[in-house]
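WARN retry 2 of 3 for item q-0093 after timeout on previous attempt; input resubmitted unchanged.
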Amino acid sequence: MIEITDHFIVPEEDIKLWVGRMGDPNGKAVLLVHGAIENGRIFYSENGKGLAPFLAENGYDVFISDMRGKGKSTPAANTGKVKGGQYEMIVNDIPAIINKIKELKGTDTPIHLIAHSWGGVLIASWYTRFADINRNIKSIIFFACKRKIYVHHFRRWLMVDLMWTVVGTIATKLSGYLPAKKIRMGADDEPAGFFFECNKWVYSNHWIDGRDQFNYKKAFQSSGFPPVLSLTGSADHSLGNKYCVKKMLDEIGPEHATNHVLGKLNGNKNDYGHVDILTHPDAPLDHFPIVLNWLNQHN
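OK item q-0093 returned
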């Protein structure tokens, strides 16, 4: 069992973020950022399974984040007391986590970023907003990351339009937060501010911040972007559909991007979905080595 060290960060008053650390403290730093209606546990289990332990066992210094209101961060979303939302995650929380890694490892330490689902939108937004000070980011790896859902079929209408948008909106307005666990929508609840800001981007043609009108898509054209590895599952039909994943890469426009669809037709052991792309027992032998090779090549 790999030991996890707890770190707590206070990016603003009354908000405390948990960051777990595992692996070799002398290894290269990797930060893992989860998506919506989940927390950092998407990357690790209590019995030492998952991407985070895999990278730790292979010599990396792995940092796992719980975004505001999620996991071990406080206050929890289900208290209804979490201030702010997506905007604060981009401009306050991720910078605070990055600064903590630099504090622990040195100002100029190289850092790799890995995100699942909406976590990719958060780190891409953060990167381009602060591109002038982010030159120590060596590479970014996306797992099933999309911004807007373009495809139309039954699963999208059920999972996104009905459950996420209609049921989610009603539940959030009634509860003061998105009770994703109670309505069996996801593994963790969401602060109301995050839910409403995130939902606007899912349907918008424009990647523009609703608070200060920062135009992310325009900023990508001038900020540059580190090398990107994008992985999604062939059985991920809605939340990480391969077409939507490719459209997000097109918006970002990284100079060097590698895109893999993981499925049996492409030589993988399974046709992976949105969650089991990270949690499937076969992942450490099937496609986690792709991630490891990528990191080793971009150190």
